[in-house]
Amino acid sequence: MSLLHVRDLEVTSGPLTLVSGVDFEVDAGERVGLIGESGSGKSLTALAIMGLLGEGLSARGQVRFADKDLLAMSERQRCELRGNSIAMIFQEPMSALNPTRRIGDQVAETLRIHRHVSRREAERAAVGLLARVEFAEPERYARMYPHELSGGQRQRVMIASAISCDPDVILADEPTTALDVTVQRRVLDLLDRLVDEEGCALLLIAHDLAVVSEVCDRVVTMYGGRVVESGSVAQIIDEPRHPYTNALLATSKALSVAEAASGANLPSIPGSVPSAGHFPQGCPFRDRCERSVDACLEIPPMVTQGERALACWNPVGGSASSVQGAT
Amino acid sequence: MSDATAHQRGPGVLVDESDLNGARSDPKQTWRRWLRNPNSLIGGVIVVLVVASALVSLVWTPYSPLAVDPAHALGGPSLRHLLGTDEYGRDVFSRLMASSQIALFVGALSVLIATVIGIPAGLLAAQRGGATGQVVLRLADILYGFPALLAAIVLAAAFGASKSTVVLAIGISYIPVFIRVTRSNALVVLNSEYVLAARAYGRRPLAILRRHVVPNIATTIIAQMSLLFSLAVLAEAALDFLGLGTAAPAASWGTMLQSSQDYLGNDPLLTVWPSLAIVVCVLGFSLLGDGIGELRDARSRR
Measuring CA to CA, which of A99, A311, B94, B279 is 20 to 30 A from B248? Predict the structure, then answer.
């Protein structure tokens, strides 16, 4: 039984369906990457798992965590799990820290909520945690306020607080996107190492395949609020089947090539992600897809083959058995 | 503003850390900023003087504020009576000092009533949107439409005019102000990413209000309290003037002003002194409120 099992998750805002039919699993200790452009529904999926969707948004379907359905839980029960068993790291470390409280206090907040430790113990634990996220002078930083820290430092603080209660799974929502390129690497390596040491599972949300392929075991591609492809990192990188995954991979590969031979045009995916409610009928990627065919007017079913799953009428690499299997 | 954020946003661009160290925590610097701001400086000085005179008047005034001396009635300023005497020969300076007690008492108590009810109600309205929030806001609207003067007249008619009715009337009329200020500021904090993060840590709603919302809106509320304090002093004087509050012979700026009317021709200074006291006191608290607000803005711009 998997640790986290999202089944047929749907997020709606009034009449608009923002995320639909999302299915994926995260096993204990496994690292899964959730990729897609902004507006694909990745963050909403993470917030729905946490039960932290904003006002006006509602989630349906099932989110099973250790055999309990998170969506059916009371808010009180969810509070017990959040931070304790399921931790989350946010995209913007700039705004995710309270400007009026000291760093040490905020790192220890989760411990004080769930472990009911004394203020003194929590402070000591916070210093230890700051040392684990590579602060050279943890005692000094624990006394500082967020505005005195750089973005990378703040994200490390967020990581420290995420691991403080030994969670079973960490949801990291684009943890490096808001950071300078120079510190992205360091934060990513740190997250990688700590997840390893803690032995917890990781759901890493990113729009960069390169980031995901370095850290994760499996990849789930989302587009238009749907899962379009999933598989192991090796499978997806070596042989992407969905045209969208393929295009993402091409842009990501081209970046490293372009660095070597600058001057060439960077490949891009034509068009842009439509706003919610403006996706075309049928396959959401249809109007931006080079390989769209008549069949794409209908939503392609998710077809599972061993470890891989794909939802495409005309996948890269020829008409696979998946197409036949579906029709 | 944009400059400062751009500055902060450059991750890794560690502006020489020593510059930033303790920018917020150093009380010395807070003092320096406090003294450099003209509003908070002047307001602070006036408030301290008013409070001091009220405290001193509790134990000592040059003359008893109630001591009648018909022989020296309507005497102008002199060495014996700094600001002169009123129509009964009472020392004006002593009466002004004693009056500051009432002004501060009414101001403090009415603001206290308004905050004790208004702040929790505002927090409730912010956190529970939906029906609960709407009910709280509509109740605030109803209170808002009910002027303090009317409340004072009703209360005075029902219980007899006194300090307590003035306090109640002013306090109740300020409740909706605090509900709105609290609610709108709390909403900003509640929608912030760090509150989302705190929820992700497993914080319960009440703890989020206590740990995150209240500390972040405290300065705004304190500034508002100071502003409303000044208005309360003004309202208290007005109600006393109309005979809806403190009754003669007790000294209050409003009653002094009222009784001085009859001698406007003979002794115009008698009207000037209480007016001046009201103006200075109101100015002091309102400058202090503005100053606190400006200090907060300066700090959040950093």
Answer: B279
